[in-house]
Structure formats: structure tokens, C-alpha cells
Amino acid sequence: MDIKSKQCEGKSVKHIFIINPAAGKGDSLDKLESDIKKTADGCGAEYEIYRSKSVGDAEIFVRNTCLGSDGSPIRFYACGGDGTVNEVFNGTAGFNFAEVGILPIGTGNDFVKNFGNAEAFMDISAQLGGKVIRIDGIKVGERYAVNMVNMGFDCSVVETVQKIKRRPWISSGMAYIAGVVIEFAKMPGAKLKKLVIDGREIDDRELQLCTFANGGFYGGGFHSAPLAKPNDGMIDVCYVKRVSRIQFVTMIGSYKKGTHLENERIMKVAEYHKCRSACIDFEGETSVCIDGEITKMKSLELELCPHMFGLVLPLGADYDGSPKETE
Q1: pLDDT tens digits, one per residue of 50-80
Q2: pLDDT value at 46 more than 90
Q3: Contact 291, 219 (CB under 8 A)
Q4: Which residue, among 138, 141, 131, 145, has the nearest Cα to 306 in the 3D structure?
Q5: Does the N-terminal or the C-terminal CB of the chain have fewer CB atoms within 10 Å?
């Protein structure tokens, strides 16, 4: 079978492209819609394009579509950042016939960094002919994370950046730099009453930052969980205990590159575990970042749900985690 034939294999599946208007400017989104129509029409694929209306709307739309389906395969494409990806995956929870593709057009596109040749995710024809692999989800209360749950310094930076970005005269780049500077002056962390990992209570109570990972990347490319694989049936936990500003500065480069597990100096103040469940009681209400979206919580329970979701791996992308394909 030639490449073009492979790219049109998905024509028996209904394809629904969900575009987050907040992820790009009007002209770029109009071009995306035009490219979708041209490619899908060329393959003879059945498709629909939907622009979400507000935060949470994509999830509601996906769930209602699944509820109204006869169980035939539907492939939803999350066209946006990690927040849009999270909404679309959550909308498919419990519907095994639903598949999720990702067109990473947002400002935060960390989940696709787990796969080789991530550029293929922007190739619409490669998406139409992509294969489906099963990936894990992390249950957080009544919702699921597909990439990362984190708290502490980096979560505070995201929270501050979101506030700064509301000012129209500040660019995204400037907002992030300002957010880092502001939070570095405060050096916020997470204070815990209790941390339990797979039923074992951990003594550490003050953390500079902490991640519970299904994927390895977050925060625009920080490789906090270099051993994480989205379908290995485990949650990767990485946390750094309270450190001084000088210590923090000296370790942040290695933490970003994902080489911190090989750094003895860093691992004296850090821990890395693989688990299936965890729970935290915080000292007061604490900001928690779930796939890039922040919520305030007093406690947190996480549970690994193996092979919970179907992810479209586009043609040309690869994954070294021996992915389990759907039958």
C-alpha cells in the first residue's frame, strides 16, 4: 500500500475536528479549517469541524456526541494546547469506540513531546491514516489527566503568568519571564500534612515542586519525568524538597533537560518513584496544575487507569514505549 492510500485509511471512521479559538489568531484558524476540508475531502473522509465556545465546552461537546452515537468509531481531534487535549480526552472517558488525535496549535503542547517526530501531529493527512494506541490516564477526583499533575514553584509560575497575560501590552514571552522573576523572589512550594504513595506514607512535608506524570514533559518542555511512558501502567512521581535559591538555580538546567536523575547532587534533595496511586493532604488550599489548568485543592487523590484512552499516533510519528495498539 502506498503512502497516499495509508493516509486515507481512516475514511470509514467519522472524524471530528475540535478547534479552540483561543489557541490561535483568526487567519491561522481559517487556514487550518481550509486545510482540514481540503485533506478530508481528498480522502473522501466523513468529517465535521467544531469551534469550541468557552472553557469546558469541548468536553461537553465530545461527551454529548458520544452519548448520541450508535457505537461506531469516532475520531476526535483536539486542535489546541494541552488544556484542549485534556478536555477532549475527558469527554471520551468511558467510550471505548472514541479515539483522540492531537493537532498541537496551542501555546503549551507538551504531551506530543513524548513521541518521536512530533511534527507529524500537525500533518492532517498523517492523522487521518494514523493508528490508535492505548494510553493510561490518571484519575484525579472525577476527572482525568493524560499528561501531568504538578504543584509547587512551577505551578505558581503558571498561575502568575496567566494573571500577567491579561494585560494586552505584555507578550506571552514577557509574561513568562516576569512570572519566573516574581515567583523566584517568593520561592513558593507546597506544604503537606500527608503524602502517601502506593499506601506508604512519605516523611517529606515541604516540597519545592512535585509532579505526578503520565507523560515526561510539562511547563513548555521541562523534562521532569524522564522515565515516564504514557502506557506503562505507572505514575512517575518526582519531587524536590525545599531548597535555597542558589541550589534551585544550580539544578534547574538539569531538571529542564531531564538529566537530574543522573545528578547525585540533585538527587540528595529529590525523590523519584513509580506508583499506581497517591494521595496528598495539603496545609491549606493549594494550587494544583492538571494538564496545564490550575485549580485550588485542599487534598488530592490520584489513581492510575491503565490503557484508559485511545490516542491516534499519526503516520511518521513513533513511540519507543512498545505501544499497545487497539485491535
Answers
A1: 999 999 999 999 999 999 999 999 999 999 9
A2: yes
A3: no
A4: 138
A5: C
- As a whole number of angstroms, the distance between CA 171 and CA 81 comes to 17
CA distance 233 to 91: 21
Spatial contact of 323 and 231, defined as CB atoms under 8 Å apart: yes
From CA 228, how far away is CA 190, in angstroms rounded? 23
* E strand or H helix that includes residue 193: strand 190-197
Per DSSP, the three-state class of 26 is helix
CATH number of the domain encompassing residue 281: 2.60.200.40
**Pairwise CA distance, residues 320 & 323, whole Å:** 8
- Residue scoring higher pLDDT (259 or 106): 259
- Does 196 share its domain with 65? no
Query: 141: Cβ–Cβ under 8 A, 6 or more apart, which residues?
Result: 301
Q: From 87, 82, 141, 83, select the one nearest 298 (Cα to Cα).
A: 141
Please report, for residues 13, 44, 69, 111, 129, the alpha-carbon distance to residue 38 in angstroms, rounded to integers and kept in the order given: 17, 10, 26, 27, 15
Crossing angle (nearest 10°) for helices 153-164 and 172-186: 130
| Domain region containing 72 | 3-129
Number of domains composing the chain: 2
Percent of the chain with pLDDT strictly greater than 90: 76
Q: Does residue 163 share a domain with residue 117?
A: no
* Residues contacting residue 318 through CB under 8 Å, at least 6 positions apart: 115, 116, 117
Indicate whether 302 and 190 sit together in one domain.
Answer: yes
